[in-house]
Amino acid sequence: MTPTDVEGDVTVRLGTLDDASALADLYSAARRAAVPQMPPAVHTDEEHRGYYARQLAAEETTVWLAEANAVPLGFAMCTPTFLEGLYVRPDLTGQGIGSLLLDVVEATHPEGYELWVFESNTGARQLYERRGLVVVERTDGAGNEEKAPDLRMAWRPRGSLTPAVSPAALA
User: Fold this and answer.
1) What's the rounded Cα separation, in Å, for the pair 108 and 121?
2) pLDDT tens across 126-165, in order?
3) What angle do CA 22, 24, 28 make, to 5 degrees?
4) Range of the domain at 125
């Protein structure tokens, strides 16, 4: 399916345990397509399936699934305070699906949320910055599995958060 093949309205619904394999497959495809902007995933596709099954069963995790005609297009996985992951099918990036999912995340997290993004993932960073997220922490990557520099970004209702790192320092 190419971007122009998406027929029907894009809707967003809560993900269920039945969606675990589809989410894991979408995640794996998105990660592979994002290299070198993102470091390669460190786990196998089968490990991803187990991870998403566990997350969908976890009480504190919510997954929002964007789809058209029951075909998964992207998803956002959240805890009460964190956006744990936002992934869109690689052939559909730049078409508003990530923004649609962020609309849902913001609506369901009115006090704000945070996320981690690889420093090298400029496409995602630009999306988050356009949405008003600001960098509140920068690391060398020692704390993540990929050992790649990353940024913690935060979204708060307008006017309640200022950057901890100046935009010039990130250039």
Assistant:
1) 25
2) 999 999 999 999 999 999 999 999 999 999 987 555 444 4
3) 115
4) 3-170
